[in-house]
Design goal:
The complex is a heterodimer of chains A (286) and B (122). Chain A has 286 residues and is α+β, with helices and mostly antiparallel strands. In chain A, 42% of the residues lie in helices and 27% in strands. In chain A, α5 runs antiparallel to α7. Helices cover 45% and strands 19% of the residues of chain B. Chain B is built from 5 helices and 5 strands; from the N terminus they run βαβαβαβαβα. The chains are: A alpha+beta (286), B alpha/beta (122).
Chain lengths: 286, 122
């Protein structure tokens, strides 16, 4: 909330209000604690700006690393031995990974700074999810995985930012593949959830297009579940695997859905995790 | 006859990579490090295609495009090759009438050459 100092200047405040009960359990009064978070918000803004600047500056040398490595691999500087080729391919892979990481940091800072301009247009979520499944086909093949797609036939069109919606869906699909065991099946569903209807513990006052991605990975420990959407969070089980992760994918997903007025939630146990995204039919930027 | 590619890129390493690769691919490639130098080369010599970075010291890529338009100089084929994929940069570029936009970190150097080949064939 915003508050005013005695001198009339306005400041941002964080307020916690809690009821105080008597012996009979009746509320007798409320206690409110207010904290001036002006400095905290300024620090956040400076940090976000720094990430944006640093990310842009990291992209320049990274393009050089990628292009020169591609030139080496193409034999522009002479034929490579198989060992040189193998090492160069590792450099190329690492540079692409880093580019993705930088892009994520940039997207996060754009959203946090409020400079991510939404481009709202009709978006067929069903077709988009089918495309995303097509894009990850080679990753699925590498792990011997298959997809059981339960996507409604008729178009499910929402008015939203296609890039952001696609990023959110890609993030949860990518995570599911990453942590699923080889030879397992990923279930991907898209359906309409009517106002008031309940799905996986959630219901909404308006109609939603829901995208569900269910994996059979190790699941998230109950005591860690409240941390899942935190920046840089990686579960104990996930960190113990050899799978590389930055802990930014789900944080970015959460930021995106907040921006679109959508919702993300999950259920998870030792048999796997189910992540759900519920998009309103018309974007409600918050 | 070899086709001429002008590369306007301030980063020396990237400029060198592009000039080298385009030359090997059979083009006549020239690299310049600033928007001002790019504008001068477009004014004085016919270019078949220009690869233009957006973030340049002094005159930006957008400034180059706007100056060319303001001075009534016929635009050669132009491909934006940048790492700035912000909505602001894309929309400002589209406003100048240029729609060929490649993001460096998303594009292999082979794809840059192929893209230019395809554009020159049109």
């Amino acid at each position: 909330m915003r508050n005013k100092r005695k001198d009339g200047t306005v400041y941002d405040a964080e307020v916690h209000v809690a009821p105080v009960l008597d012996n009979a359990g009746e509320i007798t009064f409320y206690v409110g604690i207010e904290r001036d978070i002006t400095q905290f918000k300024e620090l956040q803004r400076a940090k976000t700006e720094f990430i944006s600047l640093a990310s842009h500056n990291l992209k320049t040398p990274l393009s050089s690393v990628r292009w020169y490595t591609e030139m080496l691999l193409a034999g522009d500087a002479g034929a490579l031995t198989s060992e040189q080729k193998e090492y160069s391919e590792e450099v190329l892979k690492a540079s692409k990974r880093m580019a993705k990481l930088i892009e994520r940091l940039l997207n996060i800072s754009r959203i946090e700074m409020g400079t991510f301009v939404m481009d709202v247009a009709p978006t067929n979520v069903c077709a988009m999810v089918r495309d995303i499944i097509g894009e990850v086909e080679s990753r699925l093949r590498e792990k011997g995985m298959s997809v059981e797609a339960r996507i409604m036939e008729e178009p499910c069109v929402i008015e939203s930012d296609v890039t952001m919606v696609s990023n959110a869906v890609s993030n949860i699909v990518s995570n599911a593949i990453k942590y699923s065991p080889p030879e397992s099946t990923l279930v991907v569903e898209v359906f309409v959830l009517s106002a008031g209807d309940r799905y996986q513990g959630q219901s909404f006052p308006d109609t939603r297009i829901v995208v569900v991605v269910q994996d059979s990975g190790p699941g998230i420990e109950p005591e860690e579940q409240h941390l899942v959407f935190n920046r840089f969070f990686r579960g104990k089980k996930q960190a113990a695997t050899n799978v590389e992760g930055t802990g930014l994918g789900l944080y970015l997903t959460k930021e995106i859905v907040n921006h679109l007025g959508a919702d993300v939630w999950f259920v998870s146990d030792s048999t796997g995790s189910t992540f759900c995204l519920a998009f309103p039919t018309k974007v409600k930027s918050v | 006859m070899q086709q001429k590619v002008l590369i306007v890129e301030d980063d020396a390493a990237q400029r060198k990579a592009l000039v080298t690769h385009f030359t090997k691919a059979g083009f006549t490639a020239e690299g310049v490090p600033s928007g001002e130098a790019g504008l001068e080369r477009i004014r004085t010599e016919k270019q078949d295609i220009v690869l233009l970075d957006l973030r340049l010291p002094g005159m930006s890529g957008i400034d180059v495009l706007e100056t060319l338009r303001a001075q009534g100089i016929a635009l050669p084929k132009i491909v934006i090759l940048t790492n700035d994929d912000s909505m602001n940069a894309v929309s400002r570029t589209v406003d100048t009438g240029i729609t060929d936009y490649l993001v460096k970190t998303d594009t292999s150097i082979h794809d840059v050459v192929q893209f230019v080949r395809d554009r020159l064939r049109e």
